[in-house]
Design a protein that fits this description.
There is one protein chain. This protein is α/β, with parallel strands linked by helices. It has 18 helices and 13 strands. About 35% of the residues lie in helices and about 15% in strands. The radius of gyration is 22 Å and the shape is globular. The chain starts with a helix and ends in a 26-residue tail after the last helix.
C-alpha cells in the first residue's frame, strides 16, 4: 500500500494543490499578514491547476431539452446546475455564442413561482389559466403559488402540474429569463485561484465554468463544494492549520445571526420556503418548530426536485407544509434507498468549533450550510460554504478592473 495509503504523504490532486500553496507560503515576504500571504499564494496559481470535476458532474444540457428532462438530469447527477448549449449555434462558435447560460434549480424555482402570475406586460401570452383548467386545477389554486402569497398548496397540485402538456413541452431555452440569477460568467484557464475564490465568495457564484478559448468548450466546472473539499484535503499543512485551527468566533463567523436567519415554521406551506429563497437569494432555510427556535430540518433549493420528480408522494396530504414535505421526502428516500442530506439529522455546530472542524463536517456530510446553536439547541446563526471561502481571501482594491464588462449580455426576457 505504501506511505500514501498510510496517510503520511497525502497525494490526492487537492492535496497537491495545498502543497503548492505551502511551497509558495514559505517564499512570501515575512512582513505580510497571513491573509496577505494567502492572497499572494492563490494569485500565483492558475485555475488550470484545480483538479477536474468528476466526469458525471460536468454535464451540458441542450437548449431544446424539456424542463422535465432537465430536472431529471440535475437530480440524477446530484448537481445544482448545468451549462445550456444552444443547439442552433454553429460548430465553430465561440464559447460565448455556444452557450445560452446555466440552468439550475434556482431558476426552476423562479419558473414555478412565475407560473402563478396573471397575464402581465412581462408575460402577455401566459397560458397558465388554460393549462390549469385543462388539468383540473383551479386558477385560484394555482394562484396560491404566487410570490406575494403564502397560502396552502394542495397535495395533488404538483401531480397535476407535472402531468400537464405545458410542463412537458416547456424547454430549457424557454426559461432563459431565469438564467440571470446564475450568470454565465466563465474563467479562462490562465485566471488565478484568487479570482476564482473571490467569485465563489464575495460575488456569490455557486459554480464557475472554466472555458477553453481555443475549443470554445467548457474545460472544468469549479463549485463551492469542490473548494471546500480541496481545503479538507489540506489538513496537516502549515498554512491551512494556522488558519483552520481558529475558532469560528475568531474569524468572525457566523455573519448571519439568530435575529437575521431567514426561516420557515413547520406548519407553513413548503412553497413559502422556496419563495423566501428566491426573494432573499439564498440556498436554503431551516424549518423551525412552531412557537420555538429549534430547527427540525433544512430545505435547500435543490430539494425543489422532489416536488417535480416524485409529486405522488404528497397525494394524501391535504396541504404540503414544510413538515409534511420533509416527512414525505424522507420516507421516499428511505424506501428507494437513496442517500441525501435530507436523511441526516440536523447538522449543527457551536461557536467554539474550529474552521477546520467545520470544513471537515461540510465535506464529509456533502452539505452546503451548518446551523450554529447554543447549548440548548436554539438557533444562533448559519454558516455556508461561501462564508468559509470568504474568510480565506480578500479582494485587493481595484482587483477586478473591467473583468465583468461585456462578459455576457443579459438574456432576453430577463426577469431578475
Amino acid at each position: 500500500m505504501g506511505e500514501e495509503a498510510m496517510g503520511e504523504s497525502p497525494r490526492s490532486p487537492e492535496a497537491k494543490v495545498g502543497m503548492r500553496v505551502e511551497d509558495l507560503w514559505d517564499t512570501q515576504e515575512p512582513q505580510l499578514s497571513p491573509t496577505e500571504k494567502l492572497n499572494a499564494c492563490f494569485e500565483s496559481i492558475p485555475v488550470s491547476a484545480f483538479p477536474p470535476a468528476p466526469s458525471d458532474q460536468v454535464i451540458e444540457i441542450k437548449s431544446n431539452t424539456s424542463l422535465a428532462e432537465a430536472v431529471q438530469i440535475l437530480a440524477q447527477h446530484k448537481i445544482l446546475g448545468a451549462p445550456v448549449v444552444d443547439v442552433d449555434a454553429p460548430e465553430d462558435a465561440s464559447w460565448i455564442d455556444r452557450y445560452i447560460g446555466i440552468v439550475e434549480f434556482a431558476g426552476i424555482v423562479v419558473w414555478i413561482l412565475h407560473q402563478s402570475e396573471p397575464s402581465s406586460p412581462r408575460s402577455p401570452n401566459s397560458g397558465t389559466a388554460i393549462e390549469a383548467a385543462a388539468n383540473g386545477v383551479s386558477y385560484q389554486e394555482l394562484g396560491l403559488l404566487g410570490p406575494e402569497s403564502a397560502a396552502t398548496t394542495s397535495g395533488n397540485f404538483f401531480e397535476a402540474l407535472t402531468a400537464s402538456e405545458f410542463y412537458k413541452n416547456t424547454q430549457v431555452r424557454d426559461i432563459s429569463g431565469s438564467f440571470r440569477w446564475a450568470p454565465f460568467l466563465a474563467l479562462q484557464t490562465s485566471n488565478s485561484f484568487l479570482t476564482m475564490l473571490l467569485l465563489l465568495s464575495k460575488y456569490k457564484m455557486k459554480s464557475i465554468p472554466v472555458v477553453d478559448l481555443g475549443e470554445g468548450t467548457i474545460d472544468n466546472i469549479i463549485t463551492q463544494s469542490s473548494v471546500i473539499h480541496m481545503l479538507a484535503e489540506c489538513a496537516g499543512l502549515h498554512w491551512f492549520e494556522s488558519w483552520g485551527t481558529k475558532t469560528l468566533s475568531e474569524v468572525g463567523l457566523p455573519t448571519v445571526t439568530a435575529n437575521s436567519i431567514i426561516k420557515v415554521y413547520e406548519d407553513e406551506p413548503v412553497l413559502q420556503a422556496f419563495k423566501l429563497m428566491r426573494k432573499k437569494r439564498i440556498g436554503g432555510v431551516p424549518v423551525v418548530e412552531n412557537g420555538g427556535s429549534k430547527a427540525v430540518g433544512n430545505i435547500s433549493l435543490r430539494d425543489i426536485q422532489f416536488l417535480l420528480t416524485a409529486p405522488e408522494i404528497y397525494h394524501d396530504y391535504r396541504s404540503i407544509t414544510a413538515k409534511n414535505f420533509l416527512t414525505a421526502v424522507r420516507s421516499y428516500l428511505e424506501k428507494h434507498e437513496e442517500a441525501s442530506p435530507l436523511l441526516n439529522n440536523m447538522i449543527t455546530c457551536k461557536r467554539d468549533h474550529t474552521v477546520k472542524e467545520l470544513i471537515q463536517m461540510l465535506d464529509s456530510k456533502k452539505i452546503h450550510r451548518v446551523y450554529v446553536v447554543d447549548d440548548d439547541g436554539n438557533l444562533e446563526g448559519v454558516i455556508t460554504l461561501r462564508d468559509i471561502i470568504s474568510r480565506l481571501v480578500h479582494e485587493p482594491r481595484g482587483y477586478f478592473g473591467d473583468f465583468f464588462d461585456g462578459v455576457l449580455p443579459l438574456p432576453q426576457n430577463s426577469r431578475v
